[in-house]
Amino acid sequence: MPYHCDLSPGQKIYLDNPGSITLITLASAGAGQQQQSNTQVHTGPWTEIPQIIRVDNGALLRCVTAQGTFFWQIQGMQIGVASATAWDTNQATPMQVTEVGPSPIASMPPMPPMPPMAPMQMGDMQMSLNPMTLRMGKMTLGLNTPTVNNQKFCTQCGAAIAQGDRFCGSCGYQLP
Ligand SMILES: [Zn+2]
Predict the structure, then answer these.
(1) How far, in Å, from the CA of 166 to the mean position of ligand 1?
(2) Predicted confidence (pLDDT) per residue in 102-116, tens digit
(3) Most exposed: 23, 26, 120, 174, by fewest CB within 10 Å?
(4) What residues are neighbours of ligand 1 (ion), with CB under 5 Å?
(5) Can you list the alpha helix ranges (DSSP code H) found in the chain?
(6) Which long-range contacts (C-beta less than 8 Å, at least 24 apart) are formed by 156-163?
(7) Separation of 146 CA from ligand 1 center, angstroms?
(8) Which residues form the Zinc-ribbon domain (predicted)?
(9) How far apart are CA 30 and CA 113, in angstroms?
(10) Which of 59, 57, 55 is nearest to 24 (CA)?
């Protein structure tokens, strides 16, 4: 589960742990420019929520994993390995590390595939495509029959429309 933390009003840090890798992304948004830097370290899976503390010259990051405890120092856009002795929670302010929820886009279910086009049946009216026929009761209209050669139908609702109409008079659909 990815985490993020606001290091400063213009700088965010994102932490993720895909597989056994700790992925650190620094993103800063300055005036009119965006910067991003990534660091990937093979750390093993996290066993604790990563922690960040603010220090004089930036921030320190600590990840506890099955393979041990890892420390990094963040200065500006630089991510460097820090020593364990730098981690002094008595003299530093722990920062809020927030779990990143699934984004609205990612949580949307994929579009279901379009069902195959089947003849539509409404009461005693049946419409099928290919060939385009409209059957109402005992009457069948088809595009191949001479009587409807010049007659156009709304592709949305099937209502008859006059030649040159830009919108369907029945449903308002914009005609192609
Ligand atoms: Zn229509």
Answers:
(1) 11
(2) 655 545 566 666 666
(3) 174
(4) 154, 156-157, 159, 168, 170-171, 173
(5) 104-107
(6) 158/127, 158/134
(7) 23
(8) 153-175
(9) 43
(10) 59
